[in-house]
Amino acid sequence: MSEHVFGIDLGTTYSAIAYINDYGRPEVIRNSEGDETTPSVVFFESEYNYVVGREAKNGAIVYRDQTVSLIKRQMGTATQLEFFGQPFFPETISAVILKDLVASARDATGIDTNDVVITVPAYFGLAEKEATRQAGEIAGLNVVGVITEPVAAALSTGLKGDAEKSLLVYDLGGGTFDCTIMRVSPDGIEVLVTDGNRLLGGADWDSMLFDLVAEKFRNQAGLSEDPVDDEDFAQRLLTEVETCKMTLSRKEKASIKCSFGSAVEMVEITRAEFESGTRHLVDQTLDIVARAMEAAQEKSPGLGYDDVLLVGGSSRMPMIETSLHERFGWTLTKTEFDLAVAKGAAIYGQGTAGWVDPVTGADTGAAAALGDVPQDDSQGRTLLIGGRAMTIANVLSRSIGVQFVRDGAHPGQVEEYIGFLAHAQASLPLEIRETPETYSDDTTELSIRIFEQTGEAESETIADNREITPEAGATFTGLPRLPKGSPIEVRLAIDAEGLATLSAVEPRSGQQLTVTATLSVMQKEELAAATKIVAGMQRAV
Ligand code: AMP
After folding, report:
1. If you measure from the C-alpha of residue 223 to the centroid of ligand 1, how many angstroms do you get, rounded to a whole number?
2. Pocket of ligand 1 contains residue 240 by CB under 6 Å
3. Which residue, 223, 285, 316, 259, is CA-closest to 14?
4. d(CA 71, CA 91)
5. What confidence tens digit (pLDDT) does each residue in 88-123 have?
6. For the chain, which domains are there?
7. How far is CA 344 from CA 25, 151, 427, in A?
8. How far apart are CA 232 and CA 261, in angstroms?
């Protein structure tokens, strides 16, 4: 492992990459266009060439069929795209973004490393986290850590763990929102609660503004035809409203020049109009904050908030700060919005690799500097942050359960349902033991199927959950014709990273099963093929 590790914020709309500079400080590395953030947009120019970033984003209208954006929303799903006859999974597209970010960073810094830490939203489940790790692998990188964005944001504020405090992180990005509550002590960071909505972000503000502008344009120009039905007009307006939204974060009004056919109009939007049109979106985030606070109070009664961090590009909108203040009375700590997460990832990376003493400049490996600190990953990951050993302990982001059967509503009917063993927000690591019983007489075979919650709330309905049983399955066979009501001892253990291991014992036969749910949507061969495709591709010049 190299002494340098790049920290990557792989965002839905923008990404950033940082490292620890010669002064021991986290620094975001500018891309080849001189920007600190890079649009997470990929344009496939040919079978062998890609363009990532601003140019790809600008060309998205003209080259719609060769351009991909918002791929993070598909991570962990079985989506498959095709370009120039080659299959591309969300992992492969993300790999191209990662490859490009690292190539730029290597060029800019001269640092020759493939070691990276990648951040993910707090509420990503096992599938999405694994997909992110695999994206790194496909890009030929050595992923030394996948950490959550709020933890990275907290690290970027220079936490030293020298005082006890509690933090709330409000993170509104381009496509996602999450709220995380954590406690920081000399021992480390303990996440208490994390909550969010993976389909709520700046893009929703864009789309509200889009509707607002389009309506004004229609009225001003007296159009009988709806210009938004025209794909070119719609694409162009979508890009322009994002710029207009950013202007409204600085100014009270902004205008957009709209043209459709012979109609040309300057459409003016005030900040007040924009704010009232998107009030319901802000309220959705505030409701999630309130829900997270309630859950945190249950875990830690009387918990107060010493710091509230605003993270994510969309937190720049003044309405966010105002409404948080109005509803909760908080004064907020602004982070570097879209750079904090990458910087935190770099700090984490350095914590796992080498540590530069800020005073002497001496470079010590974390292992040496940690000395006798036990590296017990089951209790969370121990890192060297600011010269102090800190453990980062997380919570389970999605509930995990097993498929059971029970009597249905009508006689003789059998109903399958998910019985949850571990609930979202449970502190990690955890271990749960339960003894369910067989449903029918003469049971000789029994399959155990593990599921992870997909929606915002637990649901017993199978379709509302995602199966995470490993491909090989987990089945007891040749059981001694167990009568109905025979016990099966089940143990579910989830480690600090959220990796679930389920073991089960049938006491009569003594048969034992152990399965680890490392969910991967991609098959091994697909992974190898994707790695080959990405290795064979280059940035277009
Ligand atoms: P992130 O995913 O954290 O990089 O956030 C990206 C989102 O932040 C996008 O939806 C941007 O449009 C939005 N954004 C960036 N700057 C501003 C700004 N000044 N005002 C409003 N939204 C912004």
Report:
1. 32
2. no
3. 316
4. 9
5. 999 999 999 999 999 999 999 999 999 999 999 887
6. 6-200+285-393 (3.30.420.40), 202-277 (3.90.640.10), 400-516 (2.60.34.10)
7. 11, 8, 22
8. 12
Residue 128 beta carbon below 6 angstroms from any ligand 1 atom: no
- Cα–Cα distance, 60 to 405 (Å, whole number): 49
The model's pTM: 0.81
Residue whose CA lies nearest to ligand 1 atom number 7: 174
Give the CA distances from residue 310 to residues 37, 123, 167, 180, in Å, rounded to whole numbers and listed in that order.
Answer: 18, 17, 11, 11
Which residue, judged by its Cα, is nearest atom 18 of ligand 1? Answer: 246
CA of 315 to the centre of ligand 1 (A): 7
Measured in Å, residue 389 CA sits from the centre of ligand 1 at 34
Write out the H or E segment, with its range, that includes residue 127.
helix 126-138
Cβ within 8 Å of residue 295, ≥6 positions away: 192, 193, 195, 425
307 bridge partner residues:
167
Answer yes or no: is the C-beta of 72 below 6 A from any ligand 1 atom: no
Say how many Å lie between the CA of residue 174 and the centre of ligand 1. 6
121 close to ligand 1 (CB < 6 Angstrom): no
Q: In what helix (H) or strand (E) does residue 248 lie, and over which residues does it extend?
A: helix 231-250
pLDDT digits (tens, 9 = 90+) for 6-61: 999 999 889 999 999 999 899 999 999 999 999 999 999 999 999 999 999 998 87
Residue 357: the pLDDT is 38
Question: Does residue 70 line the site of ligand 1, with CB under 6 A?
Answer: no
Kindly give the distance from the C-alpha atom of residue 240 to the centroid of ligand 1, in angstroms, as a whole number: 14
> Following DSSP, what letter does each residue of 7-25 receive, concatenated?
EEE--SSEEEEEEE-TTS-
Contact between 236 and 61 under an 8 Å Cβ cutoff? The reply is yes
Share of the chain above pLDDT 90, in %: 59
Query: Measured in angstroms, how far is the CA atom of residue 341 from the centroid of ligand 1?
Result: 14
**Residue 267 — very low, low, confident or very high, per pLDDT cuts 50/70/90?**
very high
Which of 245, 247, 285 has the most ligand 1 atoms within 8 A of CB, as the residue to mutate? Answer: 245
The position carrying tokens 């985030």 is 285
State which ligand 1 atom lies nearest to the alpha carbon of 171: 3
